[in-house]
Amino acid sequence: MLKFYYNPLSPNTRRVWLTLLEKEIDFEPVLIKLDGDQLQEEFVTINPFHHIPVVVDDGFRVVESLAIMDYLEAKYPTPAMLPSEPQVLAKVRMVQLVAGNELFPQIISLIYESEDSPQAVLAKQHIAKVLQFFTQVLGDCSFFGNEQLTLADIVAGISILSLPSLGVNLSDYPRLEEWSERLIQRPAWQKTKLSSEEFELFKERVRALVRLHTNKANQNK
Ligand SMILES: N[C@@H](CCC(=O)N[C@@H](CS)C(=O)NCC(=O)O)C(=O)O
Predict the structure, then answer these.
(1) Are strands 54-57 and 27-31 parallel, antiparallel or unpaired?
(2) Tens of pLDDT along 138-168?
(3) Which pLDDT does position 215 carry in this prediction?
(4) Predicted pLDDT of residue 216
(5) I need a labelling partner for 111 at 20 to 30 A (CA). Which of 44, 76, 194, 208 fits?
(6) 50 Cβ below 6 A of ligand 1
(7) Would the CA dihedral through 204, 209, 214, 215 be positive or negative?
(8) What domains appear along the chain, each with residue ranges and CATH number?
(9) CB-facing half-sphere around the CA of 155: CA atoms within 13 A
(10) Is the C-beta atom of 93 inside 6 A of ligand 1?
(11) With a 6 A CB cut-off, is 205 part of the ligand 1 pocket?
(12) Whose CA is nearest to atom 5 of ligand 1?
């Protein structure tokens, strides 16, 4: 059976977890505690970069959440979560990448920086730009793949659903707000959503990691 190395607090892990659940793929979960399990020899042999998620399917190992999602889509094509029509596929890929490259780093800033700092203000401005862009791309459709739930809805949804808890109200973006309500009603999303205690724990982990990386960067100066 497919082995899924995960931690419920990790957003990259939840991308894969949601894909597995939406596609109703049987899997064996392997919990990796991010306070050291990921550095153990057994895990580093599977992923030398010591990151989750990882899947091992019949002995075939895949790392990197987006690559894993593509693998699952190709191997378990029903229900289809990547459109084949060129423009819809481009929309889906674009949303996945904008969510990862433009939105997620600003979410990390919001978690790390103090609320009224200039960095937090800049992060909120950038997030507003992304939300306007996503509103335009979504148009009148139910999902980013028009009427079909796609891998883009998963990647963008994980970040966008966390925004209200970080002080970014979605009510200025009614189409996105309706879309996020459609997502959260789905059983897979109910199952993987973080409680407020878990979200606080996630924020603590992010702060600790940013501090660690900042200290390392300062030591290397
Ligand atoms: N680009 C990777 C990033 C994976 C990643 O950063 N995972 C984090 C959890 S969200 C992790 O495993 N961190 C532990 C570590 O780096 O030691 C992906 O999309 O899968």
Answers:
(1) unpaired
(2) 999 999 999 999 999 999 999 999 999 999 9
(3) 78
(4) 72
(5) 44
(6) yes
(7) positive
(8) 2-75 (3.40.30.10), 86-192 (1.20.1050.10)
(9) 29
(10) no
(11) no
(12) 51
